[in-house]
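To illustrate the input format used throughout this study, we show a single complete record. The first block contains the structure-token representation of the backbone; no residue identities are included at this stage. The design step must infer an amino acid for every position from geometry alone.
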């Protein structure tokens, strides 16, 4: 009887102790979540949909904004006006018209700074190359040279915001067409992005996710990750929401172009080509060519 009562007391003390520990863990994790949220509350990131499937990404604090790859000025001006924002800067990833078409008008109307690699016909205030760092609205962005889709293509990575604007280099479960550059260059660019922390949010310039997943599923038919993502993203699109951003961690599981060293992808290419390819860039090239005609 006595033993029983001690045991009850011990159990009760243990429960109180565990409850306390649990409470501390909950508070700590809430502080962490709040801090992250707090950080992000100074830099809201939202898509401005344009053309058939482009997103111009708008980063803003309470008053000022940055826009990435504005292919059209009017939709950006409209959004700035709706949100009461002043445009501080334009970031450009590469030279294609659907990414630069609005730059001149935005600069003329708002006086914003233009940050871009060297591009014919674009008046750039700050020319960037691989290895540069840009400070905008209190945030630092590392410039990553990611040639392949085009030669001058760059991505903008913010370690503080845990995000990267990748233009047409990396898509959710896909990658851009290889218009310039070599398979070796493009693969190196994708591997560079894949080295970013897994929780890095990836902001791509197009809504191509469902088409990319359909291809990814053919390449890796037994992937439960691709199957699950396809179901999630179909639901997202049915609700007319963007499937972006994605994360590097997710892409490493569901993007065949980041998996050219994986047995499943190598075997899929082997089955299609009927021969073993020499190296990883050759696997990437075969995969990219397959997707071009998919
Ligand atoms: Zn492009």
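Output of the design step:
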């Amino acid at each position: 009887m006595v033993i029983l009562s001690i045991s009850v007391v011990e159990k009760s003390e243990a429960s109180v102790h565990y409850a306390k520990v649990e409470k501390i863990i909950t508070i700590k994790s809430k502080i962490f979540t709040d801090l992250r949220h707090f950080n992000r509350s100074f830099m809201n990131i939202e898509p401005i949909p344009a053309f058939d499937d482009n997103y111009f990404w708008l980063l803003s604090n309470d008053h000022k904004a940055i826009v990435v790859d504005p292919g059209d000025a009017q939709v950006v001006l409209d959004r700035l006006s709706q949100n009461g924002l002043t445009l501080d800067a334009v970031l450009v990833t590469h030279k294609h018209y659907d990414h630069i078409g609005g730059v001149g008008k935005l600069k003329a109307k708002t006086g914003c700074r233009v940050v871009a690699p060297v591009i014919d016909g674009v008046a750039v205030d700050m020319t960037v190359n691989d290895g540069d760092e840009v400070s905008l609205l209190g945030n630092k962005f590392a410039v990553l040279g990611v040639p392949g889709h085009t030669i001058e293509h760059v991505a903008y990575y913010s370690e503080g915001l845990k995000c990267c604007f990748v233009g047409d280099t990396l898509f959710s479960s896909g990658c851009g067409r290889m218009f310039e550059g070599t398979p070796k260059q493009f693969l190196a660019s994708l591997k560079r992005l894949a080295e970013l922390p897994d929780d890095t949010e990836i902001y791509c310039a197009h809504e191509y996710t469902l088409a990319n997943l359909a291809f990814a599923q053919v390449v890796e038919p037994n992937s439960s990750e691709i199957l699950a993502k396809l179901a999630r993203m179909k639901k997202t699109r049915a609700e007319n929401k963007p499937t972006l951003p994605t994360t590097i961690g997710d892409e490493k599981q569901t993007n065949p172009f980041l998996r050219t060293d994986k047995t499943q992808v190598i075997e899929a290419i082997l089955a299609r080509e009927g021969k073993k390819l020499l190296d990883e860039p050759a696997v990437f090239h075969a995969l990219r060519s397959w997707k071009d005609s998919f």
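Structural context for interpreting the output: The radius of gyration is 23 Å. The first strand starts at residue 44 and ends at 50.
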